[in-house]
Amino acid sequence: MKKATFYTIPLMIAALALPATAAHAHEPLYKNGRQIFLVAPDGSLLDYIPEYGSVVMGRDGRGRPILLDRNGNLVATEMSAGDYRAIRDSYGGAPAPAANGWGRRDWRQNDDRFAETPPPRWNDGPRAAFPQAPAIPAPANPDTSGERPAARTSSAKADMNVVALQVFLDRNGTSPGVIDGLMGDNVRKALEAYAEKSGRAIDPEADKETILQSLSLEGGLPVRTYTITAEDAAGPYVASIPSDYGEKAQLPALSYTSVSEMLAEKFHMDEALLKTLNPDADFSRPGTVIKVVTPGGKQKGAVARIIADKGRKQLFAYDAEGGLVAAYPATIGSNDTPSPSGTVTVERIAIDPNYTYDPKKNFKQGDNDRVLTINPGPNGPVGNVWIALSKPSYGIHGTPDPDRIGKTSSHGCVRLTNWDAQELAGMVSPGVTVEFID
């Protein structure tokens, strides 16, 4: 069998949006407004859509998408309606016999139009087109269900091309923050950081195929399935997180409020995107199979120097040789409570810390006028990580609101998503310098 060229995955992503056995015999798919048939090696039409994870994508000698099983055997060739009908008609309306070897090297015996040609370079073919996720409407009323309300307040449509780009950046240590399928400032800043780290720039439009090739070869497709476990459903969870610090201090833990919130953070996703990809999912039910993005693992290395860029709202971590190890979108201070200036150092790192609120040393929150101890949890004021700095009461920490990173202000500290703060905490040690620049 001819070796396939693996470089694009549009049909695989499209299949994620369909049931595993959807499509009856002879029923076409639709992609980019065109009818697309999945033609089996014997010339018949596939009467099902292969289940996600059971096949991989490649290209045949003419550059057409093909589906292969894990042993490299041809499952189907993707054909336009015109191509399929031309071949079908050449056999009097019947499928080509299996002996003729559809999809194999000898298919040119059936029709000269399908004679093999050298496979195209990865960037010679049409650009991959991910299906658009449905629009995510703004809630009509405040969410009182106990789940954290999404920060998105306008109707927005997640672009799966942007999701793939965000996953690519996440895997390469230049965090885009929350993966939400929206091309915003955090993504653009991550692209610039990627160019600094790798020495090459990525054009989100022109380099879609490069991004997909990298994802498929390193870490797998940007979207995969996940089965909710009994542990996921069990929690513990809290009904809601109050805004008042006095009420927070009465909770035994600042836990997640729902399985969907926990899973969104686990996979670095916007909770609204998770629910859009799984509109009918019961997240509280163990065994439920859902679609999630596939972010990267934690970056490894020893960070020797950190730059907190107030103007860019971005944090850069460098090794001892000056190489960029990781970059993260950040919320850094505000006009009322600015971050420090100059250089400080890391003093200690705390995972799942308590939070001590002192209105005389910190800011005034509500009517609270006494010292309060708020128990740990991802929805605590500093998330699940606290990297204390040598300037008292200042630190680098996580957040209960990852979708607001880089878009709001803080009380003088450097705020990251919980997963970015956890990654950074694993690479720093006491004595690392942190330089604040304007």
From TrEMBL:
GO molecular function (one): peptidoglycan L,D-transpeptidase activity
Single biological process term from Gene Ontology: cell wall organization
Keywords per UniProt: Cell shape, Cell wall biogenesis/degradation, Peptidoglycan synthesis, Signal, Transferase
Signal peptide region: 1-22
One GO term describing the cellular component: extracellular region
Gene3D superfamilies referenced in this protein's UniProt entry, alphabetically: L,D-transpeptidase catalytic domain-like
Residue positions of the active site: H397 (proton donor/acceptor), C413 (nucleophile)
Homology family: Belongs to the YkuD family.
PANTHER family referenced in this protein's UniProt entry, alphabetically: BLR4375 PROTEIN, L,D-TRANSPEPTIDASE
Protein name: Murein L,D-transpeptidase
